[in-house]
Amino acid sequence: MMILLLALTLVSVGCGSATRVVVMQNPGTGQVVECKVDPWGDMRRDKQIEDCRRAYEGAGFRVVGDRNK
């Protein structure tokens, strides 16, 4: 029981950490989107953000805010 409690504590500490959010806007339409980490997605969190950012940049969006920088 003690091991289970310790494991759950360690997992919850990792999940509660600050996450990076990149805010992007389409200059033509004004639409705003956020690229952020999916906790159930790829464990390489920066890769998730960068893949999202690249996809939106390809559609004409520009970065207007990055919480990590």
Keywords:
69 residues; alpha+beta; 41% helix; elongated
Give a description of the structure.
The relative contact order is 0.22. The chain is elongated, with a radius of gyration of 16 Å. The mean pLDDT is 80. It contains two helices and three strands; from the N terminus they run H-E-E-H-E. A three-stranded antiparallel beta sheet has the order 2-1-3, with helices on one face. It is an alpha+beta fold and 69 residues long. Helices cover 41% and strands 22% of the residues. It has a domain at 19-66. The longest helix has 14 residues, at 2-15.
Radius of gyration: 16 Å
Query: In what range is the share of β-strand residues?
Result: 15-25%
What is the overall pLDDT average? Answer: 80
Low-pLDDT regions: none
Q: Specify the structural class.
A: alpha+beta
Give the terminus-to-terminus CA distance: 41 Å
Apparent shape:
elongated
Main beta sheet strand tally, sense and closure: 3 strands, antiparallel
What fraction, in percent, of the residue positions are helical? Answer: 40-55%
Number of strands: 3
Strand order of the largest sheet: 2-1-3
Tally of alpha and pi helices: 2
In N-to-C order, the SSE pattern is HEEHE
Write a compact overview of the structure shown:
The protein is of the alpha+beta class. The protein has helices spanning 2-15, 45-58; strands at 21-25, 32-36, 62-66.
List the topology elements.
Layout: H1 2-15, E1 21-25, E2 32-36, H2 45-58, E3 62-66
Antiparallel strand pairs: 1-2, 1-3
